[in-house]
Amino acid sequence: GEICAFKIHGQEMPFEAVVLNKTSGEGRLRAKSPVDCELQKEYTFVIQAYDCGSGPGGTNWKKSHKAVVHIQVKDVNEFSPAFKESVYKATVTEGKIYDSILQVEAIDEDCSPQYSQICNYEIVTTDVPFAIDRNGNIRNTEKLNYDKQHQYEIKVTAFDCGQKHAMEDVLVRVNVKPVCKPGWQDWNKRIEYKPGSGSKPLFPSIHLETCDGPVSSIHTTIELQTNYIGKGCDRETYSEKSLQKLCGASSGAIDLLPSPSATSNWTAGLLVDNNDMIFKFDGKQGAKIPDGIVPKNLTDQFTITLWMKHGPSPGLRAEKETILCNSDKTEMNRHHYALYVHNCRLVFLLRKDFDQADTFRPAEFHWKLDQICDKEWHYYVVNVEFPVVTLYMDGTTYEPYLVTNDWPIHPSHIAMQLTVGACWQGGEVTKPRFAQYFHGSLASLTIRPGKIESQKVISCLQACKEGLDINSLESLGQGIKYHFNPSQSVLVMEGDDIENINQALRKVSYINSRQFPTAGVRRLKVSSKVQCFGEDVCINIPDIDAYVMVFQANEPKITISGMDHFARPAAQFESERGVILLPDIRIVSTVTKMEHPVDEDDRANKPVVLEEMLHNLDFCDVLVIGTELDPEHECLELDHVELQGKHLDATNSTAGYSVYGVDSMNNYEQVLRQIRYRNWDTSATFDRKFRVKCSELNGRYTSNEFDLEVSNHLVKSSFLE
């Protein structure tokens, strides 16, 4: 009647059943060894109860029916979530909001749904524009910007439903990719140019990004904007006289707008620009050219040259604006010849005298050009070969669009007045005055009677010394068409292969051939048009805006040296050849260069190196100090044969001797060493002082003042050779 045992049937179950009370049959089922839910979540087995049997040995016991036992192992939250990947990566395009950029996934090895399921994900990194949902989907909360940040690194953790979080956060890398924008890439906005560095590539690494657009051809325009440098670009700033000599122009050009000086004072009252060779006319000023400067008869062949910058005229009825006018000084108001602007047309008037012809002749020549009113500098040359008049503007020929005829002027004995910037009204008014004033800027206004100028000389006179250039034309690549404008400030390139265009643009350079260029900024603009295969809508290429920074050249220091005093017997001064004034004159130019010290702290003591340099001069004056030379008994002389084969000319006066023209220091030395001083007044002893001064670039760089003293009385031994 008692229960003696419980038996478990099944393969090695980790359980045992023990009897607690034989009489009542109560027993306990317990684990024999630790159970692990993760190894086995549940067990099912059969159990039977046994009585104590018969006899002392307990044999012949009876067993109960079989009962099925089902055990579920209860889970403990012992495991933390762990991510499937060690790093997650994704790439997004800037400017877009994504529903899901990527999904992270964590797992938990606990066995129960409560502890093995991931209930939540969280971004650990603060202040990032991302959010994550409970399924691990990461999205951006704002539009990303490639320029602001190329890449984000964020840490993420996971929680199981028992709120246990991952032992290690996972790294998520999000790369931001720029929206593909068609355009030129890998170029610098600022390009530095040092004087004397020749041809410098502007965009050595440039290439075009087309964003896989089906491009069939590219048309690119590179423009160098130099209109605010000098007269429209960097040119030699020599005087007009020196430039004409340098360009091989026929001699005899008369400068009507010279820099004010003792011999040419009629420009003294005019407004000058920051450069004293540019004159500004504000509609209130004119200049009278003194009689005798320009001959009355210009002949049937003559040339007028000028630089002009002019804008549209104010007011509805535009007045005539005089550049140059030759009119009656008194009594009458007849214009004999004139060059003026009227309603953005350039007009040249030439009235013949009756003694030359008595027939109806061409008298007014009109040109209509946009450039006359574009507020930019242009070079104009009027070549007169009567009855034909030709205009050259910036080296290009233009025929007049209108020629009107007139009768010749009746002869009279009224004197004529030549003026610049306005026309002199001598008659038909109570008091003679200026009229028809010019508004704009003029420079280098010359007139050359008796000769007209060749196209070659005209091109040289207006040539720019800076411009665009192509390095190694022969390697430009197949299928590239290119074209320069005359001044090489605009270059147009066309091609159908992107790589060829890239290569061609890398070869485009800036060059400035001046030894002392005008320092400052030159703006650059590159505009491109693209055609695509069979598509109406094609990609748009933004313009490039860049600039060339031209550095200041090292300033040269011009030094004149030589014997600075001597005495000679009077007989030598009286002789036919006189005395050579500057037998050993030397002209040397040096520039100061800083040596760069190795030690940064040693900047204050860095050595200064003087380096000799060669450059041209454009005039040297030998001036008389004190009373001017008395032509009755003294003079300075130079055999003009000494000037032959050189770009030099000379003028002589009682105030001194002036040698001018663009030439080497060596040629100037050779000429100055031949200037002789003669004095044939034997009765008196004399001391004469002279001063020598030289210039480069019309006085931009000047030498020291070298003083020389000569005498005809041998007083001190120090004067003797």
Automatic annotation (TrEMBL):
<dbReference type="GO" id="GO:0000139">
    <property type="term" value="C:Golgi membrane"/>
</dbReference>
<feature type="domain" description="Cadherin">
    <location>
        <begin position="6"/>
        <end position="83"/>
    </location>
</feature>
<dbReference type="Pfam" id="PF00028">
    <property type="entry name" value="Cadherin"/>
</dbReference>
<keyword id="KW-0770">Synapse</keyword>
<keyword id="KW-0966">Cell projection</keyword>
<keyword id="KW-0472">Membrane</keyword>
<keyword id="KW-0812">Transmembrane</keyword>
<keyword id="KW-1133">Transmembrane helix</keyword>
<dbReference type="GO" id="GO:0007156">
    <property type="term" value="P:homophilic cell adhesion via plasma membrane adhesion molecules"/>
</dbReference>
<keyword id="KW-0732">Signal</keyword>
<dbReference type="GO" id="GO:0005509">
    <property type="term" value="F:calcium ion binding"/>
</dbReference>
<dbReference type="InterPro" id="IPR002126">
    <property type="entry name" value="Cadherin-like_dom"/>
</dbReference>
<dbReference type="GO" id="GO:0009986">
    <property type="term" value="C:cell surface"/>
</dbReference>
<comment type="similarity">
    <text>Belongs to the calsyntenin family.</text>
</comment>
<protein>
    <submittedName>
        <fullName>Calsyntenin-2</fullName>
    </submittedName>
</protein>
<dbReference type="GO" id="GO:0030425">
    <property type="term" value="C:dendrite"/>
</dbReference>
<dbReference type="GO" id="GO:0050806">
    <property type="term" value="P:positive regulation of synaptic transmission"/>
</dbReference>
<dbReference type="InterPro" id="IPR045588">
    <property type="entry name" value="CLSTN_C"/>
</dbReference>
<dbReference type="InterPro" id="IPR013320">
    <property type="entry name" value="ConA-like_dom_sf"/>
</dbReference>
<keyword id="KW-1003">Cell membrane</keyword>
<feature type="domain" description="Cadherin">
    <location>
        <begin position="84"/>
        <end position="203"/>
    </location>
</feature>
<keyword id="KW-0677">Repeat</keyword>
<dbReference type="GO" id="GO:0005789">
    <property type="term" value="C:endoplasmic reticulum membrane"/>
</dbReference>
<keyword id="KW-0106">Calcium</keyword>
<dbReference type="InterPro" id="IPR015919">
    <property type="entry name" value="Cadherin-like_sf"/>
</dbReference>
<keyword id="KW-0628">Postsynaptic cell membrane</keyword>
<keyword id="KW-0325">Glycoprotein</keyword>
<keyword id="KW-0130">Cell adhesion</keyword>
<dbReference type="Pfam" id="PF19699">
    <property type="entry name" value="CLSTN_C"/>
</dbReference>
<dbReference type="GO" id="GO:0045211">
    <property type="term" value="C:postsynaptic membrane"/>
</dbReference>
<dbReference type="GO" id="GO:0051965">
    <property type="term" value="P:positive regulation of synapse assembly"/>
</dbReference>
